[in-house]
Amino acid sequence: MFRVRILLIGLLLCVAEGKREIPVGAIFHEDNYEAEIAFKYAIERVNMHEKHFELLPMIRYVSPEDSYKTEKKVCELASEGVTAIFGPSSMLTSGIVSSICKTIEIPHIITHWDPEPIGGWDPEMQAMTINLYPEADVLSRALRDLIVDYSWKSFTIIYDSDDGLMRLKDILQIHGPADTPITVRQIDDDPDYRPLLKDIQASGESHIILEVHPSKILEMLRQAREVKMLEEYQSYIITSLDAHTLDFEELKYSRSNITTLRLMDTKSFEIKNAVHDWEQGEARMKKVFRVSPEHVHTESALYHDAAKLYATAIRELDATEEIAPSRLSCGSKNLRQWPFGLRIVNYMKVKTEHGITGPIIFDDNGRRTHFQLDIIELSQQDGFKKIAVWDPTNGKINYTRSQEDVHLQIVESLQNKTFIVASRLGAPFLMLKDKKEGEFLEGNNRFEGYSLELIDGISKILGFQYRMELVPDGKYGSYNKQTKKWDGLVKYLLDRKADLAICDLTITYERRTAVDFTMPFMTLGISILYAKPVPQPKDLFSFLSPLSLDVWIYMATAYLGVSVLLFVLSRMAPADWENPHPCKQEEVEEVENIWNMLNALWLTMGSIMGQGCDILPKAVSTRVVAGMWWFFALIMLSSYTANLAAFLTMERMDASIESAEDLAKQSKIKYGAVLGGSTLSFFRSSNFSTYQRMWAAMESTRPSVFTKSNDEGRDRVMKGRGLYAFLMESTSLEYITERYCELTQIGGLLDSKGYGIAMPVNSPYRTAISGAVLKMQEEGKLHQLKTRWWKEMYGGGRCDEQATTAAGDSAAELGIDNVGGVFVVLAFGCFCAFILGILEFLWNVRKVAVEEKVTPWEALQAELKFALNLSITTKPVHNMLSESSSAKSSMRSKSESRRESESVSRMHNIKTGNSMINVDKIGFVYNNK
Question: Quick count: other Cβ atoms within 10 Å of Cβ 603?
Fold first, then answer.
């Protein structure tokens, strides 16, 4: 009755307006009611605007599995002169239609997924078929790009048919042989999916791809909620393009992330206008039809676009040559082909259109290769909400929401949430609070420490609640390669028993493969905890300690060298040859030099002892030498006295080790770390030779050098009396050395890393919590927390390490590197003095040569020979080099001169003595002229 009414309306309109009728056929299944309406009213909308022709829809119905009836209906439509056949939507019946249409060259337009046959497409077989459904390979690539963008390292695929698995072939090729394997699970007709979901939950998988018929999606998600598989750390991607048509009202408050794809923009004017036509058209037929644009099926939208695309092709080609329908027969005897069919198909392949499903572009095989997909996400407020668009040109996900919108959405979801925060006991991060008498503590009030105050500060910024829980085994979290399982805090997160894990948990590569971390809230490194060396007995010769042995040897050498130089220069310098009788004013014939080797040694010794000497050199060169030595002595004496008091009062220590290299080179001192901790992992996986040797030594030592906790390691160091060192993280080491003054840190940091807050992979709260940590850091609150729990609480600051270090530095013995500059200055001064002494000697030679009237060479020989004769301490004023008298006369003259000198000396002594006796009487000293 309905078809008759449509035909009558079309006939009346044609008669009234003079339009030519162009019949088009369509084959639907009984459950394609919405698609039939979309097709029907799309043609009606076309006919309202066309002036020269009118499309006359001729609709038939078949069963999806009835191939015989499908063939009969196609031939029936061909005999009625249809110019194209739309549908049906099943691959079985569609294949029969496509074959017949190819034979009689009638365009065949389909709107369902059609996989590429084995061996590829046959252009001849596909010559008359146009498919508006997205091409299978391109759609599979869109799903792959989405998974890559989401950074899913592992996932499980749940599918219900082999066709569905074929749609995911690009996804199955994402992972390489070394990547985490993908799990693929098929469901059957059993409506109970709980056992399968529990198996997936037991495996720890949190990423699931649902490739199932839309009718099974809701029930599967309901059962997932029942088995706790719809929590906030599970994520689902639904591959069906019709998932948005389902009623997710009962599931939109679940905490899982549910994402799907959609081919059309449900906010566009085109789809709203099309839905209006459907509702109004059915209302004219006295039928009630209601559908919102957000719930339009993909197939219905594609039928709408297919009808408009075909009408456009007819309009464009009819303008050049009138399109005339022709009644055709499927029988072999009367087989004819429609002459316009191939032209229409070829035109549609090159024509670019835009419908309610977006841009429509085909390849040479009539497959739709260019389209856009909306990525939509289920939200609590708006149901499915568009968050991004996939662009097939470059395979890129373009997000339509800003990061600020995402952050605000997450923060809003935190307002009414209570986090379960896992931790472990360990000072100062988390400790049990001391109970007062009669006090009952429960919940978070049982604990105190840095971790508690840190999460409390974050909760105040983001507005969530939290509940602290202790991990049962008390471990941080390490991976067992034999059992392929994690333990400690990491396992607690993987089992979804906690939302966050916070303590001194180090961010490592291995842990990041299992859980996510926030930005570090504290940076640190590995160092060595060791007992301070035992004080040694007092040394009788501790007074020598301010200067090293090398410095003492250099000083002794300098002392002898300066003394010898002073002695040599004084013999060469004329100014140091003095009148032996200063009271005689007349000219004397002999002068003497008091600077023998003993006096030179005495002068330098007196200088270095700071007492000086009653005899001083007079020549410029010797004075320079003496001055440089006094300067040297002053510097050395001040350095010695500055360190002497500290060395005599301090308790000398004998440190056995100073670095990790020292530990690795010896075998007497054992060393270890916490079993299962990041410190142990550092040595186990290090490629540095020193650390490899240390790991080998630790692993092979018996009894075991590993401990269960830092406290156990601390106690073992204290009891070891210098025979055990503990490798631990610098933050914990600093806390211990602030309270145990007999322990100290040896060497610097062996690496650099950080503590972070751990959470399940792909946690939606990571960015928000990292932001809160950064805010606390910028405000200085993290520094305040560390100062409070390291320096102030529970005995912090008891040991003043800085003062101890300063005292040790001030008492350190001075080596040649410290005082070598003084020796350089002394050597330079002595060299200058030596040059000056040579010049003085040569000047005196010249003077003697002039006065004695001899050649300079003769004067030089005589003066040099005299200076080198170390046994002579007196020197004649004139060398008498020019005299020609005999040696006897010279000797007599000298003898007489000596007797006269002795007589004068005796008379001088007698008169001087009488003068001193009678000084009170006469008031003056007798002076013999």
Answer: 26
CATH number at residue 485: 3.40.190.10
- Report d(CA 731, CA 524) in Å as an integer: 6
Q: What is the pLDDT of residues 133-174, one digit of tens each?
A: 998 888 888 999 999 888 888 899 999 988 888 888 888 887
List, in sequence order, every residue forming a beta bridge with 237; answer none if it has no partner. 209, 259
Token pair listed for 437: 């008498």
The total of structural domains in the chain comes to: 6
Q: What is the pLDDT of residues 548-587, one digit of tens each?
A: 777 778 777 877 877 777 777 677 667 667 766 666 656 6
How far apart, in whole angstroms, are the C-alpha atoms of residue 476 and residue 430? 13
Cα–Cα dist 112/93, whole Å: 12
For residue 757 the two structure tokens come to 């807050």
Exposure string of 451-462, with b = 16+ CB inside 10 Å and e = fewer, is: bbebbebbbebb
Structure tokens at 627: 């001055």
Q: Which residues share a beta bridge with 354?
A: 359
Q: Residue 339 domain-assigned?
A: yes
Q: Give residue for tokens 């990525």.
A: 375
Residues annotated within a binding site: 506, 511, 678-679, 729
By residue range, what is the domain housing residue 496?
421-434+442-523+771-779
Contact 694, 663 (CB under 8 A): yes
Q: What's the mean pLDDT when you consider all of the chain?
A: 81
The answer to whether residue 798 sits within a structural domain is: no
* DSSP E strand stretches across 515-592: 515-517, 522-524, 526-531, 590-592
- Same domain assignment for residues 188 and 205: yes
What would the pLDDT profile of 45-79 be if each residue is shown by its tens digit? 999 988 889 999 999 999 988 989 999 999 999 99
Q: How far is CA 63 from CA 38, 111, 423, 522, in A?
A: 20, 17, 62, 68
Integer Cα distance of 844 and 862 in angstroms: 12
Residue in 10, 43, 25 with CA at minimum distance from that of residue 309:
43
Phi, psi of 754 (to 5 degrees): -150, 160
CA distance 59 to 924: 161
User: What separation in angstroms does the CA of 696 have from each of 385, 434, 689, 690, 700?
Assistant: 57, 42, 11, 10, 6
From start to end of 71-182, where are the E strands?
85-86, 108-110, 129-134, 156-159
Known binding residues for L-glutamate:
506, 511, 678-679, 729
Cβ(302)–Cβ(10) below 8 Å = no
- Do 237 and 259 contact (CB within 8 A), yes or no? yes
**pTM of structure:** 0.64
